[in-house]
Amino acid sequence: MQLKPLDFLVALKLVAWGEQRWTYARLAQELGISVSEAHACIKRGLQAGLLVQNYQALDAASMAISAQEPTAIYRVARRKRLSAEASAGENAQSKATGADNPVRPHSKQLAEFALHGARYAFAADKTPSTIGVPTSHSAPAFEGVFAPGSENFVWPHPNGTKRGVGVEPLHPSVPFAAMQDAKLYEMLALFDALRVGRARERGMALERLQALIDPSAPKPVKGPMRG
Known about the structure:
By secondary structure, the chain is mainly alpha-helical. Among the domains are: 43 residues, no CATH class; 90 residues, no CATH class. Helix content is 54%, strand content 11%. Helix 1 packs across helix 3, helix 1 crosses helix 10 and helix 2 crosses helix 3. It is globular, with a radius of gyration of 22 Å. The N and C termini lie far apart (51 Å).
């Protein structure tokens, strides 16, 4: 199993959603990928330890199934009928129990990978100056954070709003996906700051990205101000 950049994008999307209920169809639609690609990404994410099974959803589904089963005395006589009904009502039952959230991010391990591994596994390829969607410290989320005159970085895109050094995104769908979700956009831009930013930008990105992916992680201890 080889982890792909799209798998990392899917994991960040689940972080952005938080406790929202989602389906594979919605995941595919908002990322601009196919449902089969979404399924494959979730499978690889689980194998890599970036995602974990959502046992709460699975338990809810099991409880609902148990509650709907007939008592033992009727099971033999009604077995065929129940099998047909179960097949016909599978989708409706899943929606009713909330089992449409099969996995969730493994916050600690995903943050560790995002901060210390992904920038090397998915190294940035730069292109000449072009029009595109702002990323890294040039993204809207960081407006005013850095001094004017810093070099702009963009994901090359014909409908972009800014000119700057091109940075190939994790996946061709990234500009589209970022425009659908401000929190996902922020995390993707922070990740690019780790890949192409200067020391100060990388330091800010490390702290902020960790807080977004794994809010329960201990905050870094900062040294005393020197004057």
